[in-house]
Amino acid sequence: MKVPMPRQPPALETRGVNKWFGANHANRDVSLAVPKGTIHGVIGENGAGKSTIMSIVYGYLPADGGTILVDGRPVAVRSPRDALVAGIGMVHQHFMLVDPFTVLENVLLGAEGGVTLAAGMARARVELTRLARDYGLEVDLDRPVGELPVGAQQRVEILKALYRGADLLILDEPTGVLTPQETDHLFRILRALRGQGKTVVIITHKLREIMELTDNVTVMRRGQVVANVATADTSREELAELMVGRKVLLRVEKAPATPGPAVLEVSGLRVRDGAGVERVKGVGLTVRAGEIVGIAGVSGNGQSELLEALAGMRPLAGGSVRLRGEELTDRPDRFTARGLRALGVGHVPEDRQRVGLVTSFEAQECAILGHQGDPAFNGRLLMDRHALFDRCAAEMDAYDVRPRDPRLPAANFSGGNQQKIVLAREMERNPDLLLVGQPTRGVDIGAIEFIHRRLVALRDQGKAILLVSVELDEIRALSDRILVMFDGRLVGEAAPDEADERRLGLMMAGVAGAA
Amino acid sequence: MDDALLVVLLLADATIRVATPLVLAAFAALYSERAGVVDIGLEGKMLAGAFFAAAVASSTGNPWLGLGAAVAASVALALVHGFACITHKGNQVVSGMAINILVAGLAPTLAYAWFRQGGQTPLLPGEARLPQIHLPGVEALSGIPVLGPVYRELIDDANVLIWLTVLLVVATHWLFTRSRFGLRLRAVGENPAAVDTAGLSVTRLRYQAVIITGVLTGIAGAYLSTAHGAGFVRDMTAGKGYLALAALIFGKWRPWPTLFACLLFAFTDAVQVRLQGVPLPVVGVIPVQFIQMLPYVLTVLLLAGFVGRAVAPRASGVPYVKER
């Protein structure tokens, strides 16, 4: 690793930065220093304030006090324009691109170099070609950005920053949407940037990336910096503990599966999306009792539609679905979200805020969604609020939902706790088959550990679980069998121990199709 | 043969005259909506423009002062819309509708208070109306077949605002595709966050767009009362603001298709006028009310069936709030 020159001022330094969102103290005296010419990691759980501090540095959010220094000089960053002038560029987690615009137009926006576009376009074309060559940032300049794969869109964002002369590049959760190959490509680009003397700050919650890529790392917890360490002097376990504030088990401990009879048998399944486009193009799979089958794939390859169809939320365009040997497609009355629930199918939807919960409802009301007709919660005429409350309080105890307040609206819980409310609802019904989509998206590392242990425990009770996740680490940690989905088809199967990441990545990218 | 040509030319002439305020209003909305601000208040701004143009032209005898007053009134209303929708992130449809209702009541009331003619302005004499532009060479060309009559009937003696509108269409096309302002305007309507993070002010851009909208709707209003007509009459916009909005949607928020849609609507209107009371083969004379329905029926049919998937600017109608 690189040791910064002793007398050189840091490329970026923050001193005592504070930020409030209402009553929430999102940044508490945040002080950190990023040495010049290094790759610096900022890690922390969701809500730890890592994106907030970088948004302040970029001038996207105003700070409530504190100083920002660039190359040792204090700068007043009141808007992204000030940050750009100071040589700071940022790649946001949600890309800030105009989809119908070409790559060239996107790069030019805000840096047009004149009242008309022609001259600036010609200049940008030359400059971007040079940048692409120097850093491996190849993209087709004349394609609309919306047609590009996410990896290429991210390269456009980096080009935007470099074209504006950024010496310090901040990337917020850059790998969340990338395949392993795209991630490797990105890391090569970032190392090339470091090689040219640029400074890179990467915000992430993925420990593996920190260890692989960074020179130094700042750990944040609840708005505060809890550690600044050289990456070489630390370990994943230590970082995880610093992030969460207690010891965390990073691997899911589980015994080998003992699969029983088939619970779910799917063959030739076809599903169309809302626009009529076929998204699932003939999928066949089997999930047995006592096993977790994971479906890996880059987001948008039909996994969501597959899961929704199996949960009765989306009509089939063809194929057969059998539950415990009974053909469901012959019984359209039972092949609905409600009918399936009665047949012992639980569903943890991918989008908990839109589908899994009614966020303006109280937690206790959310906890019975789909079971609101259950006599246990109903009196003769009105609902039995006491029964509701007790039931929800018990589930909150069992699933460690915080705060333990059944009357709090679901919107007021953090992502991890919302997810626990949904999981508790679905798992406490003791389903024979549990359909789970993105169980830990936007969930803290501490809660992830809990959710994973619960899912494995359910499997060990002899239940069948179908897991869809875009987090490859999660798929590998939980699944007993891994199926890879690409472009609406299952293109490969692997056992988790033999599934090396490269092979899975190639299948996810559709390269080793039907391998 | 010459008669047929004359009918075609008269239809074309009527089409252009009817289309002009539609084009002005539709292009007004084009600026606003491409910048992400839905403007259902075209109708109200046009009506305010029509009233102030006629009122000032009638009082001063100068149509150009009238035009200035129309633009000023319309821009003022546009700024109200901007203040509600951009600064205070209010609901854009509600704000636009409020402007329509406000003006629909206010204009006749003011007209009554000032002129005492039952909510109208006095009939404007010729010199208080916006002039037509007389071109040279009509006599010289009149001998040439086709070109001569086309020049005489269609191009000569067009109102000055018609020429201005032609200029506007070309300028808008250039501005949207070739200029920095156009690039930024289109960007702020698609993804304001991208504009913000590029170091540009979303608020400033959207206000600029809304002001342009105000200027153009003001001109459209002045055309109605001091060029095409000769004075303000209650409700004289008669839904043209909504029709312009429909044309914009039919034109998928792009300049040339929007122009085409305006011309199509205007053409059905011109045909409608000519068909009144004319016996048609097979069906005979159709009651005038049904004929008058034609442009509106066409609008409904086009919007319901033939537009296909209209792709509005993605951030259209959405106030910009920073994510945190």
Key attributes of the depicted protein:
heterodimer, A: 515 residues, alpha/beta, Rossmann fold, 2 domains, six-stranded mixed sheet, 17 helices, B: 324 residues, mainly alpha, ABC transporter involved in vitamin B12 uptake, BtuC, two-stranded antiparallel ribbon
Can you describe this structure?
The complex is a heterodimer of chains A (515) and B (324). By secondary structure, chain A is an alpha/beta fold. Chain A has 2 domains: 12-244, Rossmann fold, CATH 3.40.50; 262-508, Rossmann fold (3-Layer(aba) Sandwich), CATH 3.40.50.300. Chain A is 32% helix and 24% strand. Chain A has 17 helices and 20 strands. Chain A has helices at 50-57, 80-85, 103-108, 118-135, 150-163, 180-195, 207-213, 236-244, 303-310, 337-342, 352-356, 363-366, 385-398, 415-427, 445-460, 472-478, 501-508; strands at 12-21, 24-34, 39-43, 67-70, 73-74, 88-91, 168-172, 199-204, 216-221, 224-230, 262-272, 278-288, 292-296, 316-323, 326-327, 345-348, 433-437, 464-468, 481-486, 489-494. Chain A has a 6-stranded mixed β-sheet, with helices on both faces. A 6-stranded mixed β-sheet of chain A has the order 16-17-18-13-19-20, with helices on both faces. In chain A, strands 2-1-4-5 form a 4-stranded antiparallel β-sheet, with helices on one face. In chain A, strand 14 and strand 15 (326-327) form a beta hairpin. The mean pLDDT of chain A is 89. Chain B is mainly alpha-helical. Chain B has a single domain (2-306), classed as ABC transporter involved in vitamin B12 uptake, BtuC. Chain B is built from 13 helices and 2 strands. Chain B has helices at residues 2-34, 42-60, 63-87, 92-115, 138-141, 147-155, 160-178, 180-190, 192-197, 202-228, 240-250, 255-275, 288-306; strands at residues 132-133, 158-159. Chain B has a two-stranded antiparallel ribbon with strand order 1-2. In chain B, helix 2 crosses helix 10 (202-228) and helix 11 (240-250) runs parallel beside helix 13. The longest helix of chain B has 33 residues, at 2-34. At the A-B interface, helix 2 and helix 3 of A face helix 8 and helix 9 of B.
